[in-house]
Specification:
Helix content: 10-25%
Distance between the termini: 77 Å
Number of strands: 8
Order of helices and strands: HHEEEEEEEE
Number of helices: 2
Shape: globular
């Protein structure tokens, strides 16, 4: 006697359907890969001026204060295209606040002195509202830490859709 499992073909069809839906919604198979973590950073390594594209500069001082110039928002806030300048405070923390379980730099803009609008790139979607969002008066960034191949520290955060893992990297000036 041959025994057939009536649920077998149904289970296979559901599995194929689910796999197809995942492809359609654009899930990246690497979106949950572990982010490299730094556990040995010292405050003295963080104190410096850090730069990125389009004249972004963040100066982190030994007393925990910061000067911010033309820094974009992180994650989905980047899509609003605002850039802020001002003063704030920072801290090196082991608290689980970012994408990895290592140390982070938490930077808070406490006093905005200026704002600007970033020109969208040629491949950047403007979304439903073609205008930029308003720049916040205060804002907090969480920077991940990573060491490059020369063991120098890099500060970065993800921007745009977190699933795409586009990184905004600041390097020592």
């Amino acid at each position: 006697m041959v025994r057939t499992d009536p649920l077998g073909p149904l289970v296979r069809r559901v599995a194929v359907l689910v796999a197809g839906l995942l492809v359609l919604v654009g899930c990246s198979p690497h979106m949950y890969d572990e982010v490299p973590a730094v556990h040995d950073a010292k405050r003295a390594e963080i104190v410096d001026s850090w730069r990125c594209v389009d004249r972004t500069e963040v100066t982190l001082r030994a007393d925990g204060t910061a000067v911010i110039r033309l820094l974009d928002g992180q994650e989905f806030d980047f899509d609003d295209r605002w850039r802020v300048s001002g003063t704030g405070v920072w801290e090196l923390t082991d608290e689980r606040v970012g994408w990895n379980d290592g140390q982070h730099v938490r930077l808070t803009l406490t006093s905005r002195t200026a704002s600007a609008t970033r020109t969208p790139g040629p491949d950047e979607s403007l979304g439903a509202s073609a205008g930029p969002g308003p720049a916040p008066e205060t804002y907090t960034w969480t920077f991940e830490l990573q060491r490059n191949d020369k063991k120098r520290l890099l500060l970065y955060f993800f921007f745009g859709d977190p699933d795409s893992r586009s990184a905004y990297v600041l390097e020592r000036a």
